[in-house]
Structures are given as structure tokens and as C-alpha cells.
Amino acid sequence: MNPLWFLTAIVPIGFSLRWTWWLSDSNGLPVLVYHKIGNPPKGSKLKDLWVSPENFDKQIKWLKRNGYRTLFFSELADMHKKGLPLNGNEVLITFDDGYENNYTYAWPILAENSSKGNIFVVYNTIGKTNVWHNPETEPWINMADEKMLKEMLESGFIEYGSHTMNHPKLEKIPYEDAVWEIRESKKQLESLFGREMCAFAYPYGIGAYNEKIRKAVLDAGYILDFSFKQGKTNWPWEREKHTIDRLFIKGNEGLWDLKLHIKKGKARFF
Length: 270
Fold this sequence. Notes:
Layout: H1 3-18, E1 31-34, E2 36-37, E3 50-51, H2 53-65, E4 69-71, H3 73-82, E5 90-97, H4 100-112, E6 117-121, H5 146-155, E7 158-162, H6 175-193, E8 199-201, H7 211-219, E9 224-230, E10 244-248, H8 255-264
Parallel strand pairs: 1-5, 1-10, 2-3, 4-5, 5-6, 6-7, 8-9, 9-10
Helix pairs in contact: 2-4, 4-5, 6-7
């Protein structure tokens, strides 16, 4: 067998098996989800959660260069309430948890590019560490403190939503405790920031498909609720039927992957 012929045949097949470039474009709202902006600590087993500042900067610049309009939670909630359609160029940038590196790296990049970001905050860890992580997989790191969060909010480039009080797996705790986590975080964050918390994200994505827990989220007064399921959400959004899906941006993904996420609803099959 001619080695050159073999390579010519196998490389495109492998590329097609892993990346989604050949799929039809997917309709709906792309919601990007990031966690940590920075470089993972030595020995980290959670490298997918870290996007380098350099890559994040390239991704935000690509969105701006290609005409995407970044939205706040409050803007999307208003569109939902009024039944307004998408123009096809909207994108929602979200961050889970509220890390200090969101303040150090992500916020300045967003501000420099006049782009909007949204952070789901875990109320009881403001100014503390991410104690829900197992330190055997990665050292605990600092969360943004109250001063940082307010500075970002006042800049006009960051808005907040709730990620519960303590980041529990909502289906794994007593139901009444889950309801408290959902309701109390809204109350405390609204008191802290003086603004409505219209958006909620389920920690680990757990509870997003539990009828009782999702009802507790809607009954608490949140307008938008977000899962961790990979994909885009058709608009107008059928709130009573399902949550809003998101697109997990991993640390080893580049601009090609970002484009595929937004156009196809996911970048890779594995």
C-alpha cells in the first residue's frame, strides 16, 4: 500500500469523525459557558475548565470581528418576555462560579472589546475559595470578592445570575434544602447588587431535568434557567418545556472549535 495514499485517505476521515464541520448549521441561540480564564495549576486534572487569556482574547475578538452581538441576561430576559425574535447574530457569554480570574483576565478583555459577559455567582463563596472542588483533582483557587464583583458590574460590561448559595448537587440534597439554595441565593445577590437576578444555572447541570427542582427555580422568580447540556436553544424559547442549553468552551479548543460550536451546536464528537 502506498503510504501517501493511505494518509491522504485516512486524515480526512479522522477529521470528519471528530469535528462537526460537515453537519448542517444549527438554528437557535448560542450560549457560551466558560469557567476559569488563566493557565491551569501544575497537576490539574480539570484542564478543560481553563481557557488561557490569550485564547479567550482571540475568541472575543473573533466574535466582534464577525459581527456577533453579546447580550446580558437582562436583555435576553426582556426579549423572552416580549416575544422578540433573534436577528441571528446574538451570543450570550457566561461564566460559572465567579472566580477571581474572571476579574483578573476575562473582564478586562471583554471591556477592551466592548463585549458583555455574565457570571453565575455562588453567593457563599464570594471572597473565599471553590470549596466544592476535590483538592485532589486541583488546588482550591480564589473566588472574586465583593469589591471585584461590584467593580465589574459598575463598568457596564458584566452582569450576574445565581449559581445557588453553596454549589450543591441539587438532586442529592433534601428537597427543602434545594429550594432554600435556589431562593436564598436570589434574595442575597439582589440585596448585594441592588438588581434583579433574572437568571439561574444549575450546579453541575444537576436538577435541570428534575420537574420539582426546575419548578422551584421558576417559582422563585427567575426568568431564565440554564442547563449544562451541549447545544443551542431554539428561539422563541419554550420555557415551560426545557432549560436553555449552553456550549462548553474547553481549554484545548481554538477558533475553529468556537466557530463550529456557534454554527453547528457543538464542535467535536469526542
